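Annotated sample (chain length 90).
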Amino acid sequence: MVAKRLEPLLTTTLTLKNIPDEVYALLRAQATSNRRSLNSEAIVCLETVLRVGTPNTEDRLKQIRALRASLGKTKFAASDIDKFKRQGRA
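Output written by the structure step:
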């Protein structure tokens, strides 16, 4: 079996403006340390931050089932559900 590379067929360009000098210097130093281009280092940093805490499907289903079980056999009217959904919204 041959492993497939998980690369997008199309790439997107992102331009960052007004990056603080200190952040730029840190990113440049990190890229040099990891022997990556500045662009590659920025992508790795974004992937690392954005993927943290993203639960996999099984973990998410466990959370949903635990919440559902905690509600017991309580029945809610449609009007109550609408009220709960709007609670806390401005």
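Annotation: Residues 19-90 form one domain.
Annotation: The radius of gyration is 22 Å.
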